[in-house]
């Protein structure tokens, strides 16, 4: 998914200097952003107080939206570099096209994982016809320097491993949780998991104490380490945890995001993750004028133009403002 904000601002993040090295309970509120004409998302990362969770650098939550009489998601072709996109649905379908020629419909609880590497472009749209409801999350993972110029590729995994306990099913989207590993390609120590809790469940989820974590609420009423987390909000948890208490007052859906704190400092602007102003500037020019990002064939509409760069040089700094 693209950052469609026409007044795109640079985000500087990464580095270990601002990692919370102990358990905390920091509730993050979303910023509401329009994607096209019919989709509004709640942006949790980057946030005013928190820029990354492990290598997770961007989190949008959208829906559930009734799109029975609407076109639904319509995100024109746009570029990416230096990151992976993770598409995750609870309801609906998203048709993915990219400049490699990939054409795939991603459905609920299936992993759509695109590794941009040095350069790729793609589009995302609700297919015609489509389901009545659209509900999901779109996330980005920053690629470390050693892998950020890999060949771009797209993966689709419909069969993902699960971790179960009474009242809990955890689907491992990316990385590893409690010995279960996702087939999706990961380039840093990371975890992403979809947590389904049944009503009146109280349980504890095992964690890696060297990771930092956050939990995104997708639906229902749940408490995470005693903190009520409403749908569309995210609770940052810091590091140093070996387990996570969970309680559900109703059937609830959560996403666990975590990973080893991302050591490198990065610059994230529009749909690019780089290391310097010059690199971002060159990527923007390549999208507007060159062949580097390829062509998305089959999308009915024009590709997305890049916004103007800010008047000051972009500089990588810390993980929080």
From TrEMBL:
Residues 193-293 form the Pirin C-terminal domain. Residues 41-141 form the Pirin N-terminal domain. Pfam families: Pirin (PF02678), Pirin_C (PF05726). Gene3D superfamilies: Jelly Rolls. This is Pirin family protein. Belongs to the pirin family.
């Amino acid at each position: 998914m693209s950052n469609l904000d026409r007044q795109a601002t640079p985000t500087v993040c990464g580095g270990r200097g601002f990692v919370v090295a102990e358990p905390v309970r920091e509730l993050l509120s979303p910023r509401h952003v329009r994607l096209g004409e019919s989709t509004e998302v709640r942006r949790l990362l980057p946030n005013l107080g928190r820029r990354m969770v492990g290598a997770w650098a961007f989190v949008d939550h959208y829906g559930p939206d009734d799109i029975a009489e609407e076109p639904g998601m319509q995100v024109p072709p746009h570029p990416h570099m230096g990151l992976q996109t993770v598409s995750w649905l609870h309801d609906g379908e998203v048709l993915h096209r990219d400049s490699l020629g990939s054409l795939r419909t991603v459905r609920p609880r299936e992993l759509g994982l695109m590794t941009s590497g040095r350069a790729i472009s793609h589009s995302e749209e609700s297919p015609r016809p489509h389901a009545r409801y659209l509900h999901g999350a779109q996330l980005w993972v920053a690629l470390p320097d050693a892998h950020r110029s890999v060949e771009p590729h797209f993966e689709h995994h419909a069969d993902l491993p699960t971790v179960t306990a009474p009242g809990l099913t955890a689907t491992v989207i990316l990385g590893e949780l409690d010995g279960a590993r996702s087939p999706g390609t990961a380039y840093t120590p990371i975890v992403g998991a979809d947590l389904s809790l049944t009503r009146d469940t109280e349980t504890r989820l095992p964690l890696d104490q060297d990771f930092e974590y956050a939990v995104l609420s997708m639906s229902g009423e749940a408490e995470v380490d005693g903190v009520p987390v409403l749908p569309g909000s995210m609770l940052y948890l810091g590091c140093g945890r070996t387990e996570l208490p969970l309680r559900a007052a109703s059937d609830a859906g959560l996403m666990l995001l975590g990973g080893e704190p991302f050591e490198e400092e990065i610059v994230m602007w529009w749909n690019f993750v780089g290391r310097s102003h010059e690199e971002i500037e060159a990527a923007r020019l390549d999208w507007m004028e060159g062949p580097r990002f390829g062509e998305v064939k089959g999308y009915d509409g024009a590709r997305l133009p890049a916004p103007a760069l800010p008047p000051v040089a972009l500089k990588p700094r810390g993980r929080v403002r």
